[in-house]
Amino acid sequence: MLDRSVGLGELPRLADLLTTTAGVLSVRLEGWRDEQGKSWLQLDIAGEPVLRCQRCLGGVKFPLSIRSRLQLIAPGEDWPDDDLVDDDADAIEAEAALAVLPLIEDEVLLALPIAPRHEQCEAPSANASVPGSSPFAALVALKKH
Asked: pTM value?
């Protein structure tokens, strides 16, 4: 069993979606072998990363509570289509040495919304009230010269 805090800055693909990499995820990883000799991992992840709102581009706290059960499949071994019908578990190919940080990052990325946003917010409008503040206004000014 592994209990660890993972800094958001340690997960580069996730960091691209965040407004800040300050903060941590609590991770618990436990492995076991069942009666049939199958290898399993239980991965629990909790935290509250701050995602970028797709409307206003501000920060949106997104509470995470992920519990994944994964069956480890050796390279070349048959994938268990029938055993995973109930969607309680997923299968992953695992070498002798499993890279844990990419696995954690994959599970977090799969749990995030496609387009995070606040319930109520406005789109950014820095110069929307100023007439002629369109990006094309500068081109019109250049054309006059």
From this structure: 0.76
- Cα 89 to the center of its chain, rounded Å: 19
| Residues contacting residue 98 through CB under 8 Å, at least 6 positions apart | 72
Arithmetic mean of pLDDT, 23-39 = 92
Contacts for 106 with CB less than 8 Å, ≥ 6 apart: none
Q: Mean pLDDT, to the nearest integer, of 95-122?
A: 89
For the chain, which residues make up each domain, given as ranges? 2-144
Share of the chain above pLDDT 70, in %: 85
Residues comprising the chain, all counted: 145
CA distances from 32 to 14, 36, 43, 72, 75 (A): 28, 12, 12, 10, 18
